[in-house]
UniProtKB/TrEMBL annotation:
Domain Glycerol-3-phosphate dehydrogenase NAD-dependent N-terminal: 4-94
InterPro entries assigned: 6-PGluconate_DH-like_C_sf, 6PGD_dom2, G3P_DH_NAD-dep, G3P_DH_NAD-dep_C, G3P_DH_NAD-dep_N, NAD(P)-bd_dom_sf
Name under which the protein is recorded: Glycerol-3-phosphate dehydrogenase [NAD(+)]
GO BP terms, alphabetized: carbohydrate metabolic process; glycerol-3-phosphate catabolic process
Enzyme class: oxidoreductase
Keywords: NAD, Oxidoreductase
TM regions (residue ranges): none
List of residues binding NAD(+): 32, 255, 257
EC number(s) per entry: 1.1.1.8
Catalytic activity: sn-glycerol 3-phosphate + NAD(+) = dihydroxyacetone phosphate + NADH + H(+)
Length: 305
């Protein structure tokens, strides 16, 4: 059940807002999380449990760092993740769902909408303590919002990589290539997601990719959502408009995550010499940076299988 009360105060003071909290939910564009964590050091209780709904990664000189790991290292707290197949606009309308959203990374605004009770699902990824994960399942789960818990390896990375795939799907839509081409790109992308995840986390289970955080999230993100929408507009412009302009025009203040993630993934590929093993991920990045036209999304040698 959702336990956020209607009277939950809208507190613009981040440090004050968390001082008595024993469970923290992180929901913010991933480029801001490191600065937020620095502000929270020494400001939270020692027994706090955290969960991240953030898709993305930070690429350091020593390699990539997933957002939950960054929260864990900077704050010294156990951090689970919640990833899965849903479109935010539908979730906001579900059964009085109290959604906490960062606005300008300054404060939280509480959205309370009319009950609709549309069915959807998500996946919680946990590290070692399944009992903690089950507490999060009880908090987030409802009869029409099904939440399952699996080992964290691969869960967070699937939520990150699907935004790269959504950019590719948007290119296909914008070029009006049709559903056959779009499904082909999704299949190739799914294979690259699995291969990338297994290289990063060799212990990841194949079943993880069949959870809501895997194939289901990939499908829904390629059908709708902000990354697909903006990439569609980019392709229709022939790649002549800038992504930041389209973000401002189309997203009404929401921050686009997919384009930044393509750069982060490409940086990891270069660091580890994996470029040739992930031709689609590489092609999406090169298109986003303007070095290839959107039409290149189906013109490159994307799959050896």
């Amino acid at each position: 059940m959702w336990v956020f009360e209607e009277t939950l105060p809208n507190d613009p003071d981040l440090e004050h807002a968390v001082e008595d909290a024993n469970m923290l939910v992180f929901v913010t564009p991933h480029q801001f999380i490191e600065g937020i964590c620095k502000r929270l050091v020494g400001k939270i209780k020692g027994d706090v449990e955290a969960i991240s709904l953030i898709k993305g990664m930070e690429v350091k000189t020593g390699g990539p760092c997933m957002i939950s790991s960054l929260i864990n290292k900077q704050l010294g707290v156990n951090c689970c993740v919640l990833m899965g197949a849903n479109i935010g606009d539908e979730l906001i309308l579900q059964n009085g769902l109290y959604l906490l959203r960062w606005v300008g990374c300054q404060h939280l605004v509480l959205f309370v909408q009319i009950a609709m009770e549309k069915f959807s699902e998500e996946t919680i990824g946990y590290r070692e303590d399944k009992e903690v994960a089950q507490r999060w399942v009880q908090i987030f789960g409802t009869p029409y919002f099904r939440v399952s818990a699996v080992s964290i390896e691969g869960v967070e990375l699937c939520g990150t990589l699907k935004n790269v795939v959504a950019i590719a799907a948007g290119f296909v839509d914008g070029l009006e290539m049709g559903n056959n081409a779009k499904v082909a790109i999704m299949r190739i992308s799914f294979n690259e997601m699995k291969a990338f995840s297994k290289l990063m986390f060799p212990s990841v289970c194949d079943n993880t990719f069949l959870e809501s955080c895997g194939i289901a999230d990939l499908i829904i993100t390629c059908l709708g959502g902000s990354n697909r929408k903006v990439a569609d507009a980019f392709a229709r412009s022939g790649g002549k408009r800038y992504f930041h302009e389209l973000e401002t025009e189309l997203l009404q203040g929401q921050k686009l995550q997919g384009v930044k993630t393509t750069g982060e993934v490409y940086e990891v590929l270069c660091q580890r010499g994996w470029q040739q093993s992930f031709p689609l991920f590489q092609t999406v990045h090169v298109i986003c940076t303007g070095h290839l036209p959107p039409s290149a999304i189906t013109q490159q040698r994307l799959d050896e299988n």
